[in-house]
Structure to design on (258 residues):
DNA sequence: CTAAAGCTTCCAGTTGCGGGAAGCTCAAGA
DNA sequence: TCTTGAGCTTCCCGCAACTGGAAGCTTTAG
């Protein structure tokens, strides 16, 4: 199967698929004309990667997860460990964003937003809080 | 004042300060020896930038905000507009992360995390939800 | 006088692709 | 059969916002 059809079936842009081959996440065969020839297993892998990326896993995490997926001798504890670390990272990002959000929303509420130059937002940035 | 002292006073790494000069956010003078010579106003600007970055504003937003800060004829509505857009962006990032978090936490809870290979996390990635 | 610290510029790498150029292949219509 | 257009290939640049490191000059401390 050519990359265009694979792109639709896996839900990933052709550019992304080529990139994943570049970095060794998938290894499609090649036809005589030089075109990539994807097997069903490649499509399955690509869809797996797409979903892992949707959950926010880094490419390196995806590589690890894919490796575990294909390793019959894996221990689920290994998978859980990767997922838990990622969950922790997500939590700290959320916390950071919420902190920004809190400060920023206060400032936005305090700002009149009219034609006059006086602005609590700029004042806060200038003086620090 | 040299970059080292400015770095401490503004709370930004020297590399970052040089980068901000590169992209035209600050324009320190130069001493005869070629060293950057920062004025108080430069330090003030850098601290302003540091705080804006802490609130998650992009560099281009920072450039805009700094411009407004130095423009006596600004209207606070302009500042508020930039801040509100950023707030919206933060909100959607939070929403996206929470969505990831929700799915991922369910999966992590469902996974035994023991020595056996069976893993709901991998199963979900393989099949989609 | 020397060594270390601090400054300079420049270049490469990070993450995860996207855009676009140049060029080959293939499928369909006149 | 020829041609056109779509689809495929590789390659390299660019994004955001820096960080790290090399090579080399200046200043400072002992």
């Amino acid at each position: 199967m050519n990359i265009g059809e694979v792109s639709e079936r896996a839900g990933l842009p052709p550019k992304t698929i080529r990139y994943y081959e570049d970095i060794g996440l998938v290894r499609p065969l090649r036809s005589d004309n030089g075109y990539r020839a994807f097997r069903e297993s490649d499509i399955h892998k690509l869809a797996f990667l797409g979903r892992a990326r949707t959950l926010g896993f880094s490419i390196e995490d995806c590589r690890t997860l894919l490796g575990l997926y294909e390793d019959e001798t894996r221990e689920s504890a290994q998978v859980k460990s990767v997922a838990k670390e990622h969950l922790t990272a997500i939590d700290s990002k959320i916390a950071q964003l919420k902190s920004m959000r809190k400060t920023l929303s206060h400032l936005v509420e305090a700002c009149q937003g009219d034609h006059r130059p006086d602005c609590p937002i700029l004042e806060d940035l200038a003086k620090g809080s």
